[in-house]
Amino acid sequence: MKLELHSASNFLVHLVRLSSRSSINDAQLEKFRLSLVEVLRRRYRDHWFPERPFKGSGYRCIRINGRMDPVIAQAAEVASLDSTQIHATFPSELTMWIDPLEVSYRIGENGSICVLYEFKEDSLNEPWRPNKTLSNENTKNNQQQQNQNSVSNSTSVTTNNTTNQALDNNCKETLRKMDYLLDPRKSVSIEQLAAYVSSS
User: Got the DSSP string for 101-163?
Assistant: First the structure.
């Protein structure tokens, strides 16, 4: 149960973090994430059947549409956060199924179901976590390289500056695109948002 609950809570907190409407700091988000894990653990304790993973699936379903799911609202309350503020950061339609061995979600009423976490027999199983953007790491590496090369080779500095600028533009474009996708006033396909969130 631990891997599934951590995967689900990591994903939900990731959605809050990506929202342009969120003013919640990292310490509050971590408290919210831990609250989610605990609230879900208590709720699912007697409704978790690894030998029959789909038994009780409806009970373990988290649903956000016009209303906030009570489980998320309870976790927000435990973390001393305003549930209406949390609700505003999520997509207008989100369904998540937290079952033994698999966590999946759907954004939109008719969107595709995406598997977030799946237990694999011959694999190191860890909870889902958002990928750190490679471009941020590349930017840091390029900046360090630029500093080392600036004394010896001005051509190298020019190349690194160009690379850093391109990577910074990619990061800004990624954030701009996520803000656009999460803006409820925009008309964006559910598949676009689901694919983007899965790859982030």
Answer: TEEEEEESTTPPEEEEEE--TTS------PPPPHHHHHHHHHHHHHHHHTTT-HHHHHHHHHH
State the residue range of the domain holding 52: 2-118
Q: Is residue 123, in this structure, part of any structural domain at all?
A: no
Measure the CA–CA gap between 90 and 65, rounded to whole angstroms: 9
In-domain check, residue 41 = yes
CA angle 192, 29, 90 (to 5 degrees): 30
Q: Is residue 127 part of a domain?
A: no
Contacts for 36 with CB less than 8 Å, ≥ 6 apart: 5, 8, 9, 12, 13, 71, 72, 75
Q: Which tens digits make up the pLDDT trace of 42-78?
A: 998 888 888 888 888 888 999 998 889 999 999 999 9
Q: Over the range 110-130, which residues count as b (16 or more CB within 10 Å of their CB) and which as e? A: ebeeeebbeeeeeeeeebbeb
Tokens coding 183: 């803006």
Domain count, the chain: 2
Query: Which CATH number is 62's domain given?
Result: 3.90.640.90
pLDDT category at 131 given cuts 50, 70, 90 is confident
**129 assigned to some structural domain:** no
Rounded percentage of the chain residues whose pLDDT exceeds 70 = 64
pTM greater than 0.70? no
Nearest-angstrom CA–CA distance, 48 and 34 = 20
